[in-house]
Amino acid sequence: MAIDLHTHTTFSDGTDSPTQLINKALAAGISTIGLTDHDSVAGWQEAITALRPGISLVPGAEISCQTPDGISVHILGLLFDPSDTELMQTLEKTRENRHGRMEKIISRINQAGIDISMKDVLEQLSEGATLGRPHLADALVKKGVVASRDEAFTQMLHNNSKYYVAHYSPSPELAIKLIKEAGGVSVIAHPMASHRGRVISLETFGSLIDAGLNGIEVDHRDHSPEEKSQLIELAKQSKLVMTGASDYHGNGKLNLLGEYTTEKAQWLKLEEQASARRVVTV
Question: Which has the least CB within 10 A, 25, 82, 134, 259?
C-alpha cells in the first residue's frame, strides 16, 4: 500500500471534493494520504467523515511562503494542532491577501486586452476554498483564452510572467517555526521545481534546517533525476526525512494520485517527530 503526503481538493485549487479524494485514493491502493490544501484546513472534517477502513488521513496544509528576495517557497505542514492560534491566524492572513493580489493580476491581464473579471474567477471557486491562480486559469479556459490550466500557467501565470503579483506570505523559516510550535512536522514541497519560477539554492536550506525543517519532498514530477540526486544527498547530510508525493490536484493537471510516494520507514520517522499522534483512521 502506498503513502502519498501531498494532495489538494476543492477547498483550495483541486477539482475533487475531500470525499472524492478519499474514494479515489482507496481505488488507487493508497493506504495513507496527506490532505494539504493551500493555506487551509477547511477540508479536514469532510475527509475524516469520508474515511473507510484501509486508508488513513494525514491532516495538513501547504503553506505559501516567500523569501526576503521574493522567491516562492511552499512548506507542507503535517500533523499540527488546528487549534493553535498563531498558525491559524497566519493562514487566515495569507488567504485574505489572495483576493487583493488576484484583483491586481486581473488588472494587468485586462490592460493586455484580455476580458476577464473577478466575478469570472470567483465563479470557479468552491465555497470555502482558498483563492489561487488555478481558479484564474480555469476562468481563462472557460473564456476560451487558453485550452487548459497547464497552458494558462505556461503562457500567462508562471512566477516570471508580466502578470505575476506577489502576495503576503510568511517566510519559510517562520512557517516552519509555527508548524513546530503547533506540534506538527514540516516538509519543503518541490524545492527545485524551477519551471515554476526562481527556486532557492541548496545553500539556502541551512536557515530552514536551523528553523526546524523535518523533511524534503524529493520524489516529485517537477524534479529532474539530477535535482533528485542533489536533494537525496542534502537530506542524508542534514538527516532530513525524504518524502515523495503526487501533488495531486484532480482534473487539469497531469499529476496522478500515488505517482510518487513516501517509503514507509521514512514516513514513520517523520510521524514520530510530531508532538502527538494525529493520523486519523477508522
Answer: 82
pLDDT digits (tens, 9 = 90+) for 125-142: 888 788 989 999 999 999
Pick the CATH number of 99-157 from 3.40.1190.10, 3.40.50.620, 3.40.50.300, 1.10.150.650: 1.10.150.650
Please give the distance of CA 4 from its chain centroid, rounded to a whole number. 13
